[in-house]
């Protein structure tokens, strides 16, 4: 689920505005963004607010509300999208434990489909 | 009775390699053809970006070029009905029908003659889309997937729609997972790796094979352990059901397609958990002349300890079908 290749602190107008990393949808088909019930990111065991998580799908960036309302654009199977997390000063240099929880609302399942991943990452 | 059962592969089988971009869509089609299978099944939303929107003309041309190049035929598209796609809103019947029609147009455009209907689709929706499917010459099949079996109450409601409408464009798609006589060891062993008690796992497997009702086994296990992981093993017996293959017999003219679900193929072409030969014999005797499409689902249970080789697994499964007389 967590793809380290795109990991970095993001600099916006000379200031670090947050960090980003790549992610793959933990499911066997693509889904419309509206079906992503929750995307929760944690760093070193601390859960970050979900409304700080933005989803960058190809050329479009979605905040939480935009994502929930997006019925057409999709996170496709195996597609690496970027998650951008607003966080002043981003992540400090060094090793961190990155956590990702994705909860997908799926019509035929009577329960939420929740997947968790953890990965040790290094910010350089 | 004469049968002319045909072999196909659901590209769902190659999902591990496809997800990791080790195989492209064309690679999956080529791997299918290399087994001698002639039919292609897809989960549209897995294989083709943008599905169920109609793909570009360029893609459609490419698709049929692949079909010619590898000498295979589009057989079935597996659709979904995400009635809770909009947050906080449940599809009205009209919205559900519109969503379904999109899949019919998608399947038709790519030459599929069958749509696998996801099991949560209601009989009322089926009745409303049948005329549209007839117009597009697409046969719809409700998937009979464990823990349902072909005579489950839900399937009976769908059967009523088939009877009532008298249509030739709606029937059943039995999934071989509904004939799980012995629990799949790839599933059991994964739970043991996650901490389940091997003795409890052994007990559950024995009860399942004997045909003991899952609720009894679950209750017994709840008295042996209060750990969630041990209950998960017991619950395998509830989700993976076994029906007598003879149950297909009276529905034979309503079977439009078969999902060849499998978990693990041995080197000598045996699927230890599913008595394939028995099921195939019932299909042969009944004169079934559709496809059986391989649907490998062991990947997710072994990916934590070994590299998944879906291509090899599918190849063995296809050889097994040949060994049981499916040419």
Automatic annotation (TrEMBL), chain B:
InterPro entries the UniProt entry points to: IolE/XylAMocC-like, Xyl_isomerase-like_sf, Xyl_isomerase-like_TIM-brl
Entry's Gene Ontology molecular function annotations: isomerase activity
Superkingdom classification of source: Bacteria
Domain Xylose isomerase-like TIM barrel: 30-300
Any Pfam family the entry gives: AP_endonuc_2
Keywords of the record: Isomerase
Cross-referenced Gene3D superfamilies: Divalent-metal-dependent TIM barrel enzymes
Record's signal peptide: none
Protein name: Sugar phosphate isomerase/epimerase
Source organism per UniProt: Confluentibacter flavum
């Amino acid at each position: 689920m967590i793809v380290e290749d795109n990991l970095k602190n993001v600099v916006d107008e000379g200031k670090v505005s947050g960090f980003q990393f790549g992610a793959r949808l933990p499911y066997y088909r693509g889904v419309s963004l509206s079906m992503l019930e929750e995307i929760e990111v944690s760093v070193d065991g601390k859960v970050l607010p979900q409304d700080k998580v933005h989803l960058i799908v190809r050329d479009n960036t979605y905040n939480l509300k935009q994502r929930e309302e997006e019925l057409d654009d999709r996170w496709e199977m195996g597609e690496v999208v970027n998650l951008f997390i607003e966080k002043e000063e981003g992540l400090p240099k060094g090793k961190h434990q990155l956590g990702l929880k994705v909860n997908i609302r799926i019509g035929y399942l009577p329960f939420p489909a929740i997947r968790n991943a953890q990965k040790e990452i290094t910010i350089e | 009775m004469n049968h002319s059962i045909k072999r196909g592969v659901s590209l769902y089988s190659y999902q591990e390699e496809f997800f990791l971009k080790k195989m492209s869509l064309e690679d999956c089609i080529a791997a299918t053809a290399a087994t001698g299978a002639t039919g292609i099944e897809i989960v549209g939303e897995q294989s083709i970006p943008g599905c169920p929107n109609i793909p570009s003309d360029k893609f459609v041309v490419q698709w049929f070029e692949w079909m010619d190049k590898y000498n295979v035929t589009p057989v079935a598209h597996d659709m979904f009905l995400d009635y809770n796609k909009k947050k906080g809103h449940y599809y009205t019947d009209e919205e559900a029908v519109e969503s379904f029609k999109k899949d019919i147009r998608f399947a038709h455009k790519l030459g599929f003659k069958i749509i696998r209907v996801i099991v949560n689709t209601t009989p009322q929706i089926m009745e409303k889309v049948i005329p549209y499917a007839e117009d597009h010459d697409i046969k719809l099949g409700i998937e009979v997937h464990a823990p349902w079996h072909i005579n489950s109450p839900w399937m009976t409601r769908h059967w009523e729609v088939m009877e009532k409408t008298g249509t030739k464009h709606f029937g059943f798609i039995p999934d071989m997972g509904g004939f799980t006589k012995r629990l799949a060891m790839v599933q059991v062993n994964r739970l043991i790796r996650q901490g389940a008690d091997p003795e409890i796992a052994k007990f559950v497997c024995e009860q399942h094979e004997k045909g003991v009702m899952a609720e009894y086994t679950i209750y017994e296990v709840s008295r042996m352990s209060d750990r969630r992981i041990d209950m998960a093993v017991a619950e395998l017996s509830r989700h993976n059901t076994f029906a007598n293959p003879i149950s297909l017999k009276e529905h034979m003219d309503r079977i439009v397609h078969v999902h060849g679900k499998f978990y693990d193929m041995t080197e000598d072409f045996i699927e230890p958990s599913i008595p394939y030969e028995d099921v195939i014999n019932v299909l042969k005797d009944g004169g079934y002349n559709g496809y059986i499409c391989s649907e490998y689902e062991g990947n997710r249970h072994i990916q934590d300890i070994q590299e998944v080789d879906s291509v090899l697994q599918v190849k063995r499964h296809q050889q097994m079908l040949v060994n049981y007389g499916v040419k």
